[in-house]
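Structure first, sequence second, as always.
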């Protein structure tokens, strides 16, 4: 059994669950302990007790530990990438790239620990000096999703530790392997007992214990809108700092003047790669009339050529859906799309391969309208809906006509249109002639409207959430 990590020790549990490979449902990658409420409270106690020594301790010790973690992740990217591909279903190249990204995140924040936004300012009163300091917010609860099982934990854990906070980390129970491997690396990095704690398990036990404990000073969550709303309700009326990323229904606009080849590549990568299981996936492809027919034909031809299969097969471009529940949801939305009157131009069928896996052909819908459920609700699968638009202004209106606002993209050769879209798109991130899915680790990540709550993540924005400001007036 792979145990949880609490107060510097590996702690087993009365309950465990197998980690099933979606490329081969007959294969288990091991059993992983599920923490209960009592163990979660033990982890919070450990983090609370370790806080003062960690926040007031050597900054160089933080730098060294985070750099060691990043170095080991990069050195083991092939090995850990294979594990990630097996448990989540990403293709092996995507999985290796995700592990590398996690390594670079830890290395980036190892240096950010040396650059807190502190400053000395002259006072308006003679004889006084004013110093503005950044201090850790305290004990940070971290709840992460299954679709990026090592990158998203990294971009939350690394800044939390870098800025002097202690951590209680709950990964998604579908993908415990990558989280456990990361925790094992952290446990050997020189970080003191209690500073970092891993409590794998169900949200109803671990998550509920984290949201109800007043010793959690801040909580960061990435996941579904429904779960995010429950967390917000649980913390209502409390002073717990809260940050949430909750998905999107991201548009990719293709204008008449766009490079057809580039637009198709952006659409395919954004909608179908990683099996569409990305909050930044472009599931609404909004195409103006002049290029619409040519785009649909080229998009379909490209979709038909995609190879669906085992995540470790070198020929595979689209891996399996993560689990049976997600597959059922994908197929249900495909049925809804057909019932709503959209035309299924390609795919949308479960396919058989040499192993018993959860393989689904990417689904391409055309003749869509933005009022359809497949254009309004996040499916989180390889399902793309092409929506015709009269012109750019109409396409922009459709793109913004959603309660979400995580990411938006446009394919155009017009600098004027690109500039206008960048300014008028109601999304937290905008991509021009690039897939909506794919972001850098050293710049802010976050959305608008229902996609995000609180400060943004990654890059310099991370400091806003993981630190608090103190102002000191000094009279010599």
């Amino acid at each position: 059994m792979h145990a949880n990590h609490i107060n510097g020790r590996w702690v087993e549990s009365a309950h465990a669950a197998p980690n099933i490979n979606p490329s081969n449902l007959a294969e288990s990658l091991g059993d992983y302990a599920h923490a209960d409420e009592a163990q979660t409270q033990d982890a919070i106690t450990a983090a609370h007790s370790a806080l003062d020594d960690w926040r007031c301790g050597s900054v160089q010790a933080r730098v060294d530990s985070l750099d060691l973690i990043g170095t080991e992740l990069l050195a083991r990217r092939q090995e850990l990438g294979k594990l990630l591909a097996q448990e989540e279903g990403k293709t092996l190249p995507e999985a290796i790239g995700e592990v590398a990204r996690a390594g670079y995140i830890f290395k980036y924040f190892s240096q950010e620990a040396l650059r807190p936004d502190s400053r000395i300012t002259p006072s308006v009163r003679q004889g006084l000096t004013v110093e503005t300091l950044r201090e850790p917010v305290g004990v940070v609860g971290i709840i992460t999703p299954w679709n990026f099982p090592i990158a998203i934990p990294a971009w939350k854990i690394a800044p939390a530790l870098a800025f002097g906070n202690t951590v209680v980390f709950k990964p998604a129970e579908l993908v415990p392997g990558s989280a456990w491997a990361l925790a094992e690396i952290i446990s050997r990095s020189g970080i003191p007992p209690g500073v970092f704690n891993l409590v794998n398990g169900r949200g109803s036990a671990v998550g509920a214990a984290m949201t109800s404990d007043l010793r959690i000073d801040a909580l960061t969550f990435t996941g579904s809108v429904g779960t995010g709303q429950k967390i917000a309700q649980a913390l209502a009326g409390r002073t717990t700092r809260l940050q949430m990323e909750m998905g999107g229904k991201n548009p990719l606009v293709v204008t008449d003047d766009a490079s057809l080849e580039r637009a198709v590549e952006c659409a395919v990568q954004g909608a179908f790669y990683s099996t569409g299981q990305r909050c930044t996936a472009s599931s609404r492809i909004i195409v103006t009339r002049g290029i619409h027919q040519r785009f649909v034909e080229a998009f379909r031809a490209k979709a038909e050529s995609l190879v669906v299969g085992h995540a470790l097969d070198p020929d595979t471009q689209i891996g399996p859906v993560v689990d049976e529940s997600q597959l059922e949801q994908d197929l249900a939305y495909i049925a809804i799309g057909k019932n709503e009157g959209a035309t299924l131009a390609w795919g949308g069928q479960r396919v058989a391969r040499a192993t018993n896996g959860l393989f689904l052909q990417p689904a391409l819908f055309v003749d869509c309208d933005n009022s359809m459920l497949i254009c309004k609700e996040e499916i989180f699968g390889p399902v793309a809906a092409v929506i015709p638009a009269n012109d750019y202004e109409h396409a922009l209106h459709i793109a913004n006509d959603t309660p979400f606002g995580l990411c938006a993209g446009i394919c155009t050769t017009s600098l004027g249109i690109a500039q206008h879209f960048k300014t008028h798109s109601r999304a937290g991130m905008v991509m021009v002639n690039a897939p909506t899915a794919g972001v850098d680790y050293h710049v802010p990540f976050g959305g608008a409207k229902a996609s995000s709550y609180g400060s943004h993540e990654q890059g310099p924005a991370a400091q806003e959430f993981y630190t608090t400001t103190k102002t000191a007036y000094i009279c010599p």
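Margin note: The longest helix spans residues 92-112.
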